What we know:
Elements: H1 2-16, H2 26-49, H3 52-56, H4 66-89, H5 100-122, H6 152-167, H7 174-198, H8 202-208
Helix pairs in contact: 1-2, 1-4, 2-5, 4-7, 5-6, 6-7
Amino acid sequence: xxxxxxxxxxxxxxxxxxxxxxxxxxxxxxxxxxxxxxxxxxxxxxxxxxxxxxxxxxxxxxxxxxxxxxxxxxxxxxxxxxxxxxxxxxxxxxxxxxxxxxxxxxxxxxxxxxxxxxxxxxxxxxxxxxxxxxxxxxxxxxxxxxxxxxxxxxxxxxxxxxxxxxxxxxxxxxxxxxxxxxxxxxxxxxxxxxxxxxxxxxxxxxxxxxxxxxxxxx
Length: 218
């Protein structure tokens, strides 16, 4: 479901810049196809392994933290801006085809997709907003990617955002992409503090799994 939402965002945002497609910016069209493909695969995986998550992500639940609404109001425009800026700035391949930067971006994108799909497969509480899901008997998830860092989903989102300027060949798109990643880091810190204070067992989990996003760093 995560990747489907991301794919929709990409299609809508890139559509605004479609005056350049497909004649001199084939990367845009290719990116949309990649996003739609990974989105469909992600959705199929959730339907198989964690179907309850689809309903839980459909609408924001009660008790969403007020600071999260503020962050989301900033994150949304920043993520859309990645595509809008890339649509105006992205350069064509030319006759040489994809370069090394594009291949690195594709590697980051695949890694992000795999990580996000893994998170949505094992975490039934992977909702869109930050809250304690009392009605869903919210509990600590400490298996799968959550044995490595406490917020692997945000790692996946960050890798996806950082792959976009490379896949779309846009230097200027790095600005909103990095801004969005910074906002995810802020969200990670606030969510982690909330969980340690309000979710039973999370403080013990945090003591076992020391790092929030980057092993050995933070």
